[in-house]
Amino acid sequence: MAKPSTRQGLIDYCLRQLGAPVLEINVADEQIDDLVDDTIQYFNERHYDGVEKMYLKYKITQDDIDRGRATGTTGVGIVTTTGTSTNISGVGTITSNFYENSNFIQVPDSVIGIEKVFKFDTSTISSGMFSIKYQLFLNDLYYFSSIDLLSYSMTKSYLEDIDFLLTTDKQVRFNKRQDRLYLDIDWGEKTKDTYLVLECYRALDPESFSQVYNDTFVKKYLTALLKKQWGQNLIKFQGVKLPGGLELNGRAIYEDGQRELDEIRQRMTSDYELPPMDLIG
């Protein structure tokens, strides 16, 4: 099928691109499965179509609060890390203990990046019935053109500056290989059953979104990986004569596959990958 919509359909398509069934592609099924997984992982982590921007809600539990509020060297979720140095002249062995809180929430494995967590605090400047924003609308904008838009815009900017100084964004830490979102906040101010809203990127699951299998990049990348693996399997048979005088040339197949992979990865950087954010300072 020219438009693969399943995992096996993608495999069959790529094998046909290499010459099957006219030629025997000397790659084991287990190797093919590994290469498909590598292709999907690379697509999810590097291609802008491999992820979707999501807003996920999380309800804070009492266990989260207890772990976040733990203090000292003992408590719920306190983790101890020990460092030891031996053979110190005149001292012997020095041991140091370090303690850290388990102030994190476990994030689904499909989440590959978190942009931010929306503000936790409520501010009288911008939220609630008695906020300055609400009162400004109630008293000054009750009919059209009652206030000059320039003055209103300048007032809003001023209030946003005050809001930023009083309720700054909290520090969060996230690493994809841990699947943990650390929240460096005052957990004593949090209450049970309140929500956090995460702005994050989630990897597309090809089993749920079958168009991933028909993506141009995925098909080309997997084909190149299969060609490289095919050549690598045949390298040790270099110079072996086949019936009819044919000679295997695994190294040429391997080098062709490697060259195609280099070209595809280069194009990934220039065409398909989201540009990195510029940092100044």
What structural class results from the helix and strand content? alpha+beta
Distance between the termini: 52 Å
Largest sheet features: 3 strands, antiparallel
Helix content: 25-40%
Encode the helix/strand succession as letters: HHEHEEEEHHEEEHH
Q: How many DSSP H or I helices?
A: 7
**Strand order in the sheet with the most strands:** 1-8-5
Strand content: 15-25%
Rg, alpha carbons: 29 Å
Low-confidence runs: none
What does this structure look like?
Helices cover 38% and strands 20% of the residues. It has 7 helices and 8 strands, in the order H-H-E-H-E-E-E-E-H-H-E-E-E-H-H. The protein is of the alpha+beta class. The two termini are 52 Å apart. Helix 1 crosses helix 6 (216-234).
Please render the helix and strand layout as text:
Elements: H1 7-17, H2 29-46, E1 51-59, H3 62-69, E2 79-88, E3 92-100, E4 104-106, E5 111-117, H4 132-140, H5 149-166, E6 171-175, E7 180-184, E8 195-203, H6 216-234, H7 250-272
